[in-house]
Amino acid sequence: MGKKEASSHEGILIALNESMEVIFGKRTVEAIYYYLEKKFLLKLEDIPRKSVAFTEAIAEMFGVEGASLIETMLVRDLSERFALKGTKEGLSTLSDCMSVLGFSGSQKCVAREKTE
Questions:
Q1: What one-character-per-residue DSSP string does 8-72 give?
Q2: Distance in angstroms (rounded) separating the CA atoms of residues 19 and 13
Q3: Rounded-to-integer distance, Cα 114 and Cα 101, Å
Q4: Is the pLDDT of residue 100 over 90?
């Protein structure tokens, strides 16, 4: 990915989705996104702006240890794809990566059922 694409919202979404598919496989990722939207009202396109909420949701789904491993893998992949500085500079969380890429990840969410 080029610099322009790397900084674009769409480029980040593509990278996140591809990373998730490497970790879980396509069908499982589809189920995760469905659950994120139903339980947390969090869509894939929201993740760059709501990375803290995403991380909290993943922790609820997979436990703290599972979420930590998933986040580490996502951070590593995004850092490589977008040539971000390593953990020495403090990029240890998904929120750190999103901040460097120009998104604020401070929004948290509370688990709730979507009303239809």
A1: SHHHHHHHHHHHHHHHH-HHHHHHHHHHHHHHH---GGGTTT-HHHHHHHHHHHHHHHHHHHHHH
A2: 10
A3: 30
A4: no
Report how far residue 78's alpha carbon sits from residue 33's, in angstroms, rounded to the nearest whole number: 19
pLDDT for the residue 115: 46
Identify the CA nearest to 75 among candidates 58, 63, 92: 92
User: What pLDDT was estimated at residue 80?
Assistant: 87
Report pLDDT for 116: 43
User: Domain 3-100, CATH 1.10.1200 — does that match?
Assistant: yes
**Residue 55: both structure tokens together:** 């991380």
Domain residue extents for the chain: 3-100
